[in-house]
Amino acid sequence: MKSHELLDAVGGIDGKFIENAAHRSPKRSAWKLAAPIAACLVLLAGVCLALPGLHSSNGTRFAPVPNPNGKTEWAELPKGSPSHPILRPGDEGYITPAPTLAPVPPADGITIPAIELPESSVSADMIGLVVYRGGIYTEARSYYGEAAQRIDPLVGERLGTATGTISEWSKQEEYAVEFASTVAGDIYTVNGYDPGFRICLRMEVEREDGQPELWIEFFDRLNGITIATGSDVFEDRLHIRGRVEAIRWQAHDDWNWNKGSLREADIPQDTWDAFLDALDQGGFIDAWTPGGAFYENRPGSSIYDTPNQAHLFLHMDDGTVIELRLIEGGYVRYNSFGSGWYFVKIPGEAFDAVYDACGGTHRKDW
Amino acid sequence: MDDSQIVELYLARDESAITETAQKYGARLRRLANQILHDPAASEECENDTYLQAWERIPPNEPRTYLFPFLGRITRHLAIDLCRRQSSQKRSAVFCELTKEMEECLPSPNDDAESIVAAAELQRRINAFLEQRSAAQQNVFVRRYWYFDTVPEISKRYGFSQSKVKMMLSRMRAELRVQLRNEGYDL
Question: From edge to edge, which strands make up the β-sheet containing A263-264?
């Protein structure tokens, strides 16, 4: 295959990508345009109603409000203000999720193939990776400044120094050595996590103002493994249960366009526990359906085609953050899974309660 | 006139289809060609050839809901083809630059028969790759490799710094390369 063939192939990409890129900014539907106005009304209502008594600090709920400078500020919601309605099947307004043709979770789990070392002399790998004990760990999440300071105690035993020598001209033999990497710096274990799953890079970088800033980057190894249920990842490796201090969510459109607007989730403990139970027990599926249709009556559709998604950021008690991507229909993905399309499929009610509380939509107009 | 009405004109073999197409999409098609050719006269030629090919391809195609992507693909193909036919001295620097960037996505430098996969299959893989990206990433990729925008143009369009655009493109090329390799493209 030659580069011009790839350039030709890009010419035949799906028309929706071409149309989307023709617009200077994301298309905004009427209800989205109304959202800032609604947020201002929420602020106004908050100012009027909140004076008699706001929630206590651990029960406070917030709403994002754009200020005249274009930034988003947070306004506390007054006590008793309605929370995001959670509609159940049978409730008025509940929209049944689009039926899918997704594969069912195989009983014996799915095997994620090991990332193989390149066999050519042309690599150009800018993707963050570190080779450790013969496995390839790919970048999972970066922490800077205060966030890095908070997780600094997690940095454990020094394992070695990543060479950072892998470049676009690296040869096979340069990859096949311990600590070959696309980033340079000292590599450590991460306290509380299996080094067979997670290691980290710790270094100080110089900010634009010349001051040093701590930078810690996690690298996860989630390839060359077999996983059956959610607990294989979320409990055995990430140890989620009982450690989540706060849950924030981001609407899919905001995530898609890097707009920020993270909001505090208001999820009762028993609802969250039921979600985790279902997540642990749910089976993994490989949602990639090449040439098929993930959604019934939508030829060629993939799981990501729907706008009905929610993005959760779990702030853990050790300072780490775990990002989950929820897609209507009961699909949950650990978002540091690299390029794999691996989702846990969980039952409707446990999923919907969290999905709806985190801005998940049920749009049909797509 | 909306796209489906224009397509109906083609289907009815009504020559006003060309006029309507030119009125609605002429400037965009010309700009698309000029992004790679940097030659207004040649770009206009590509635009006119696009109308001719559209006339020949509709029917059997009926691109009522994707008329611009349909026309744009033709223009893009014509412009690249013209670029390739030019002597290496005249060949657009943009084309050379894009081809070089695409090399970074290739899992193997070899051009052995086994590594040549049907174009349709490769397109499907690229679609699958793009599906996994955020809309911002998709648009940056498509603006660069479909519309041939420069990094500064993309930067201005989306309000990203140029270094951010470069990094997004670089990472996507690397990820595409890893994905293609993992899917057997280095056979």
Answer: A263-264, A244-251, A309-316, A321-327, A331-334, A342-345, A283-286
CB distance A223 to A211 below 8 Å: no
Given A7, A26, A115, which is nearest B99 (Cβ)? A7
Task: Give the Cα separation of A310 and A326 in Å (integer).
Answer: 5
**Is residue A315 domain-resident?**
yes
Question: Does residue B96 sit at the A interface (CB-CB below 8 Å)?
Answer: no
Whole-number pLDDT of residue A75: 45
Cβ distance A362 to A97 under 8 Å?
yes
Per-residue confidence band for A39, with pLDDT thresholds at 50, 70 and 90: very low
| Interface predicted TM-score (ipTM) over 0.85 | no
Mean per-residue pLDDT, B90-117? 60
Q: Does B64 touch chain A (CB under 8 A)?
A: no
Indicate whether A165 pLDDT > 60: yes
**Could you tell me the residue range of the domain that residue A73 belongs to?**
1-82
**Tally of domains in chain A:** 3
pLDDT tens-digit profile of A107-138?
Answer: 778 888 877 655 433 333 346 778 888 888 88
Same domain for A211 and A144: yes
Q: What domains appear along chain B, each with residue ranges and CATH number?
A: 3-87 (1.10.1740.10), 104-182 (1.10.10.10)
Spatial distance between the Cα atoms of B130 and A13, rounded to a whole number of angstroms: 9
Closest Cα in chain B, distance from residue A268 (Å): 30
In a domain, A89, yes or no: no
Same domain, A142 and A216: yes
State pTM to two decimals: 0.54
Best residue in A1, A120, A136 to probe B by mutation, most B CBs within 10 Å?
A1
- Which of A193, A220, A247 lies at the terminal end of a domain, its last residue? A220
Same domain, A76 and A184: no
CA distance A207 to A212: 6
